[in-house]
Amino acid sequence: MKSKRKNFITLVPDDYKRKLQFKYARILLLFQTASILLVILFLTLIFTMLINQKIPFLTEAPSEQLYTIIIILYVAATVGSVAISWLISIRLSHKILGPLFRIENLLKQAIETGEIPNFTIRKDDELQNIVTLLNKLFEQVKNKNNLK
Length: 148
Description:
The structure is a single chain. This protein has one domain. Helix content is 74%, strand content 0%. The protein starts with 14 loop residues before the first helix and ends with a helix. It contains 3 helices and no strands.
C-alpha cells in the first residue's frame, strides 16, 4: 500500500530545473539568514547600550523607558527584516515571471497577427533555454510553411 503523504520538498526530475530550484532556495535562505542575523546583532548592540545606560535621553524611569525602547526597536527591526526579505523575493521572482509575461504577450501577438515573432528576454533572466527552444520551434514552423 502506497503512502499518501507528500514530500515536504518536491524535487523536479530535470537536473537543470533542480539546479534552478536549489539556486533560488539558497538565495532566499541566504537573505533570510542574513536579515535575521542583522536583527539579532542590532538588538544585541542596542540592548547592551541601554543596559549600560550610555544613551543620553533616558530620564526618570529608566526601566520603563528601556522596556518601551527595546519593544519599539524589536518591532522596527523585525518589520525591516521582513520588508528586506520581501523585496528580495520580488526581485528574484521577476527573473522568472518577467520572461513568462513576455512570452505570453508575444504568443498572443503571434495569434492575432499571424506573424511569428523572435523571442528575446534579458540576459540575466532564467528562462533562456525555453526562449531558445521557442525560437527554434518557430523557425521550423516558418521553414515548413515556406516549403509548402
